[in-house]
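With this grant's support, we have settled on a layout for protein records. One resulting record is reproduced below.
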Amino acid sequence: MKKIICFLCLCVLVLQAEIIAGVAILVNGHAITLSEISKLQTQMKISKKAAIDMLINERLKDDEIERFKISIDEFKIDEEISQIAANANLSKNALLTKVTRDGTTLQEYRNKIKKQLQTKELMQRILASNISISSEDELLSYYTKHKKEFLLPSSVRVVRYTAQNEGDLQKAIQSPKATIQGVQKINETISLSSLSPQIAQVFLNTPNNEFTPVLTTGGNGFVSFLVKERLGEKAISFEEAKPLINQKIMAQKEQSIITEHFNKIRSSANIITLRE
């Protein structure tokens, strides 16, 4: 009896200690703090409930990474950083300089890349035994129901925003009509056939009256395009569209499988709310 009482007292003390430390929720023993919730709310501009859901899912994902024993060595992290730099048209040193200038330490950045690689590997393992190849009928059905998705323009009318300082460019993106010192605006029409497939896809994925993601220029500057209008749209044939249709269907299936997997994991997780 004394042992039981001592154990209960210990539990109370532990819970009190957790509360004092600012822990709001325990997910399979992993803490989520009030400061984490508040920080995510501010960063993502989301409700407290949405922030809590995201953090719970993050802890569950960490558990799955551990369960699958997914490890990423330093060489893979270096490779990924080099690839990110190449995609941004930067040297590796230039990328890391930019990262530290933005207030992130190199170790924090490496940890972030490691987590991204672990997550990617986890998703691949979850999908490996669950996803099925789309049939011809499935592809044709999608094409028939979503023909507007396969109207591709020959060119796009844009406003090119360029700056040497990314912060200035971001200000211009937030206030497109304002005159921001250090930011140049040029109206132009871009032929998509003159672009690499990857860059052309950036314009195709950007809705009218929205900005493309910020890209780097050859002169260490930054550029973003405000897409104004698509010109010369025409439908591509079913045969031409097949690869794109397959990507879209697979993406839908993948999301469904991932969601179902984590819903199942969450339903059996030990989630304790210590305080609201």
